[in-house]
């Protein structure tokens, strides 16, 4: 596929209302047992896990386009879920690939036209298994990306010990591990540069582990860390579902 | 009481595999790893308190949800409402009974 030209930058200004696309990934690794439900469609406090992400993202004025990336076998369930739980919101369904990177690529290909004509200026990519990223976190990454180029939510990697080549621990605050952080989603980037980065990555046969990896490797975007949220957990273990349910109840189902 | 199966990572056997999930109303009651049988469940007293809190929220938000559905799909709503109303008592009785049994 020929690479797309990167048009001149819009300058360092925040994203305008309605010009950000929220991309929620619900594709997974493709290695799941056929009978088991994709965890993003599990019920959580009255709606499916993935629906919560759209509930929070739709509260952010800058976000005007919504995309859900699904596995082919989940398309019908995704459609039913959105019809019931995201009523009034036009969510575009995109069939993703076998890896996270391919799913991101599929979403960006789908958005290529609105990105190139300027209707979409920022793209925020989110893991559908993180239902507790509230509106303030979405807003924070979108605004930061509009201003500097890219934004990822991060938390200090507490309890991480860096070990040097000699096998000895590195003194905390020094050495290569000094700035370690745990990265979350949503991750937001200026749309044209991100699209170009993914085109270049495809041409180079590169697959990043998350959006910021590809953006940092294949673009000149400045990526800034913003404060992540401890409650922005990823549903992985059974306990996570219990905890997410409890956190939602404690916030009266309205996250900040 | 509803059951479903989903892919999660077991804290006991550390394998990512299918888990059976049991829900009461819209609350998760327990999970069981289908590989090793490890069960995670709500403490019974916690579950009842959580269920009652959740029930209050369901009841308070029901009118709004009904109106939204009626506006969105009026014909389907009108066709399904009588049956849904008739099913409610048995549904709540079933949820409470399952909670009290502490399955």
What does this structure look like?
Chain A is α/β, with parallel strands linked by helices and 256 residues long. Helices cover 34% and strands 20% of the residues of chain A. In chain A, the strands form two sheets. In chain A, strands 1, 4, 5, 6, 7, 8, 9 and 10 form an eight-stranded mixed β-sheet that branches. A two-stranded antiparallel ribbon of chain A has the order 2-3. Chain A is globular, with a radius of gyration of 18 Å. Chain A starts with 19 loop residues before the first strand and ends in a 6-residue tail after the last helix. The relative contact order of chain A is 0.18. The mean pLDDT of chain B is 86. Chain B has a four-stranded antiparallel β-sheet with strand order 1-2-3-4. Chain B is α+β, with helices and mostly antiparallel strands and 103 residues long. Chain B is built from two helices and four strands; from the N terminus they run ββββαα. In chain B, 55% of the residues lie in helices and 26% in strands. In chain B, strand 1 and strand 2 form a beta hairpin.
Q: What is the 3D form of chain B?
A: elongated
Oligomeric form? heterodimer
Count of distinct strands of chain B: 4
Distance between termini of chain B?
10 Å
Secondary structure: helix percent of chain B: 55-70%
Spatial extent as radius of gyration of chain B: 17 Å
The low-confidence parts of chain A are 5-10
Unreliable parts of chain B:
none
Structural category of chain B? alpha+beta
Number of strands of chain A: 10
Task: Provide the gyration radius of chain A in Å.
Answer: 18 Å
- SSE string of chain A: EEEHEHEHEHEEEHHEH
Number of helices of chain A: 7
What is the element string of chain B, with H for helices and E for strands? EEEEHH
Task: Present the secondary structure layout.
The complex is a heterodimer of chains A (256) and B (103).
Chain A: E1 20-26, E2 43-44, E3 47-48, H1 49-57, E4 63-70, H2 75-85, E5 91-95, H3 100-116, E6 122-127, H4 135-148, E7 149-156, E8 181-183, E9 187-190, H5 191-204, H6 211-218, E10 222-227, H7 238-250
Parallel strand pairs in A: 1-4, 1-6, 4-5, 7-10
Antiparallel strand pairs in A: 2-3, 6-9, 7-8, 7-9
Helix pairs in contact in A: 3-5, 5-6
Chain B: E1 2-9, E2 16-24, E3 27-33, E4 39-41, H1 44-72, H2 74-101
Antiparallel strand pairs in B: 1-2, 2-3, 3-4
Helix pairs in contact in B: 1-2
